[in-house]
Amino acid sequence: MKKTVLLIAVICMLMVTATVFAGGQQEDGVKTIRAGHGQPIGTGLHQGFVYFKEALEANSNGKMVVEIFDSGQLGGDRELTEGVQLGNVTMTAVSAANLGTFAKEFYVLDTYFMFRDREHVYNVLDGAAGAMMLDGLTVKDMKGLGFWENGFRHLTNSKRAVTETADMKGLKIRVPDNPVQIAAWNSVGAGPAPMAWGELFTALQQKALDSQESTLESIQTMKFYEVQPYLTLSGHKYSPYVILMGNAFYNELTAEEKGWVDAAILESIDKQRVFAAANEKKAIDAIAASGKTEIGELTDDAKMEFRGKMSSIYEMVEEKSGKEMFDLFVSEVDKY
Predict the structure, then answer these.
(1) What's the total number of domains in the chain?
(2) Which of 35, 192, 263, 264 has its CA at a distance of 20 to 30 angstroms from the CA of residue 175?
(3) What distance in Å separates the CA atoms of residue 271 and residue 267, rounded to the nearest whole number?
């Protein structure tokens, strides 16, 4: 009988410990957020997490703390997103380009040449369209907290300067395994080739691929400019990071705790966007200083030509993201 009671007590203790770990509650009453992301220290994404950590710990007087696991220690975007769903990771921020398979609303961002500048982007993402995207995550056991900046995406290639759509003809360009993005690059004559991000530098170096598209920070930190002699500042697509927290963790917070988290997120969004813009300036300066890449920029007329041809994917985007989401997004883009 005593053994049975002891066994039950041990099981209960283990259950409590497991619950405490999953919920982030330490024995001393401090709640710990395990935050993971895939980028190196020093990038805009990591800076956003550091600022959020400092703001939350200050707001809560140390009653909530954040442990940051950078550089993919807890996995890539997919693993981190699934970890948040399961409660193994409390919080992450992943590229919106990788969220469409989790919440269809994010496919709406697979449109090209929609935004003029950062202010235009922020008006849309921080408004009704962005809210609808974040709301789509709720049924997937995630709380969408907001958008940090990844940046506008630009083109590099090893063949020629790109000044119009004709220059894309035959360029074998790396894309994620996303049917909308594949269709978009096909529409301007390129040859899109899905490939994992981690394999990209070697593929470009060995000329297995001609081209890639990413943010200036990525082009600089991944050293793509060393093997891609042409950089075109196209700004063809804006790529935000989406800040995610597990629904179970967030919903179990008290109203006061939610207030601390929400306030820290709002503060971090403003600051992280400043960090990202500064990092982009440093990146373009470093690329230019290397002397290894010719830097050009699409004219407004060229952007309109690209947009006209790439608009052929709108029907596919509407189907994937849902008509309500697509219509709201286009309306918000046009409004600002």
Answers:
(1) 1
(2) 35
(3) 6
